[in-house]
Predict the 3D structure of the following.
Amino acid sequence: MNLKNHFDLRGQRVFLTGAGGAIGGATARVFATLGAELYIADLKAPTELAGEIGARAAFALDNTKRDDVDAVVRDIGVELDSLVDTSGYYVKGDWLNGGDEWEDLFARTMDINVKGPVNLIRAVLPGMMERKRGRIVLTSSMGARNAGSTLAIEPAYAASKGALSTLVRYYARQAAASGVVVNGVAPGAIFTPLLVSANQPFALDSYPMKRFGQPEEIGWPCAFLASEGATFTTGAVLDVNGGVCFS
């Protein structure tokens, strides 16, 4: 039995998007701690974070624009071992009476939370399949399973994350024979600016662990799914929600 450290990411080339967010930044720090060679991106290039963690490069990227995604992957210029997408979008709206404003919100949510990850996958998966090696990790949500932590959650967000969980399983099937694995994490209520801006009445007394999760508590499961420890795990969406709901 080979007892090497399968959770060591040294030498692994990782493209991590959404790095400007709380979960994305924490995830980038986790990967850097484990020795990954990081290329990070967000709408605004996360250059300060790149300097802090020693990332190889930081990019400004709108995932919803396929040409821009393709250009960044070309600019990275190396064969990627992993894609980790932590980007996401949530804005509260009046789905019943919001009119055109809510229609725009719905379209924007679907663009960022569904089309964006598809663009990323289309840019990196063919090369991974050709090399017969690769890891893809997408960020879904507990809202994909239970329609949110409260009845007040935005339906566009819940629907988009449900679509993303389905895409994890779809691309896992597409890539499995080549040895590429595709998985996801589904965070519960994580203490981030996004959670604060949602302005929802979270009843922590009803949560089994009686607390919010911390961003790094999503980063570590992402690191596992990108590691050699997860070579026989594909199509999984890992619940990371403190026991609020189960698969």
The first strand starts at residue 13 and ends at 17.
